[in-house]
Amino acid sequence: MCTENVPPLPIEDSMPSKDLPQVIPAQMRRVNNLISRRVNYYSRENGVEDVTAMHGWILAYLYQYQDREIFQRDIERAFSITRSTVTNILQLMEKKGYIRRMSVPQDARLKRLVLTEAGAEAHRQILRSLHQTDESVNALLTAEESAELLRLLNKLRAGLE
Fold it and tell me: Where in this chain does the record put each HTH marR-type domain (predicted)?
């Protein structure tokens, strides 16, 4: 993947980067922000700019478990979010055409969540954006540096969990 065609993202900090503290958490936060901007850039390029991160996670969950009956409570549990929050998210996703809520014969109160073709396509484009971002980041590192960075990040994650 050639990153030369990707425009640089604007830097919003007024302080020059050389003056910023060189502590690991601060640097990780900055890199995370830059990666998030890159994901958003590719997402816009791939036509999924109206999908929030949480929508993306829910689309991925529904895509992965298409062969099962998934209900709102499953989303609440999977993502540790409240019922009212999930209700609002699902209403918006339904309005955008990414999901449908379908009644189940055994209990009219229950609504099964079904991923629509538009939702599946949005999921595929989000994955594409994530892969493009990964390629863009990997192009900045050698194979050895990439492997070492992943090793160190996994070590930090494991130690902090």
Answer: 17-158
